[in-house]
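Lab meeting notes turned into a lecture example. A postdoc, R.K., suggested we walk through two folding results consecutively so the class can see how the record format repeats. The first protein's sequence and structure tokens come next.
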Amino acid sequence: MQPIYFGKSGRQLLGVYHPALVRRPGNAAVLLCYPAVQEYMRTHWAMRKLATLLAREGLHALRFDYHGTGDSAGGAAEGSVARWLEDVRAAAAELRDQAGARRVSLVGLRLGAALGALASAGGLELKDLVLWEPPADGRAHVSELEAIERISYENFNVRTVSEPEELLGYPFPAALRAEIEAIDLRAVSRCAADRILIYASEARPEHEAIRAALRDRAGRPPESHVVREEAADRQEGVLLSSRVLQQMAGALSGGGS
């Protein structure tokens, strides 16, 4: 596990590179895209474990913080979908260089899945595009985050006290809200990926809508995989599961789906 900084001077991004721990033909590599900052802490363990599993399977992996999040450059209020799409492309290029890979695969969780799909639809060449609990509708996604905030405050027996342009304790400027709410994966058609896979903890109409809309390079719809959760707490759900991590790692390494 190697922390690295990459990207343009003045707006460098922090990444954590997990080199492959075993040799395998080619230089397979997987880029991991986190969800929105509001879900970062709840998903960090899962993304780190997935990177470790991939490295053990002989795949190089890179996870990174978007501009204005985590330890990357930029203020917390400077995030934007357009800038984060640039970050995804920059991270893919960095991973190709680090791993010596011609192309990479991408796993995106929640908002990270939407960013991955948009980047690939915009021309980012991918081997596999894995959409993990992807939000079809950005407006519904923001509403889900607001519901999580309400539940969180209720669990602590306090009233909701978010400041304007804040969500779940993190800055959420109106411009960023509008950009995220404008995301609609049902309006995205073909991606520059050889294969698209959707992973979810339950069958949901929004995932079927994405499957009906998206096509891979060959014009095929995504493969859909429902992986039931071990976690009893549905609010955490897929974010705490090991089963889905193992299945995704197996699929990406060619060991199964």
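The second example is placed directly after the first for contrast:
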Amino acid sequence: MPDADMDKAIKYLEQNPLLNMSMLEPIRRKQALIYYAEDDGVLLLERKSNALMMSVSGADTAERLIDSIAKPQDFVVHQAECVPLVKEKFGFVTVFECIQAVYTSGRRLAPVCGIDICQLDFGYLPIILKHYHTVDNADYVRSLIREGNMYGGFIEGSLAGFIGTHAEGSIGLLEVFPEFRRRQVGTALEIHMINRMLANGWVPFCQIFEDNIRSIELQRKLGFAFAKEHLFWLL
């Protein structure tokens, strides 16, 4: 990736860092292949998820950029007006609209007492698949475990919930089992992931469905800032 392209991409994306953090962090973590970076937008391939990501100043730029590319596995669009163009061009069926939340303070948080956080191995794959349904792909979850990106919260030796980092770098896959809810398990798990990312020099961010009020409240409590605009995953 030429440095000039990276500098141009970062300069454009930092005009709206909360919305574009899902593109800024892959660049900073050296997970991005930049296809286009000018003063009217950025198009890149996030290498680990194999998803194309686009943030542009208008639909005309989007139309020009997508006209010259083959259909990707997934496409992340950061402007609502561009979703119909991408959907029609490539025939995507599923569209997930998400709120992006970013942990901006850079301060590590104190762990929650009484909850042990441990990295999960393949022995926990069946229980993860049983409880987490947003991503219905065993191979994907298996790859996250293989890379050391899945963690469990344990209370007195019993698994109470789990959390992970998605391939492109966002915090996600958070699930707390019903019998352990209202015991700060979700808070403990997310604090662990925030601190882990900060230790690596990364900016923690996550993407939330608009109707997931519990998750929105958790991010707000932990000090996340929310982008005003939504982003869209097309699958």
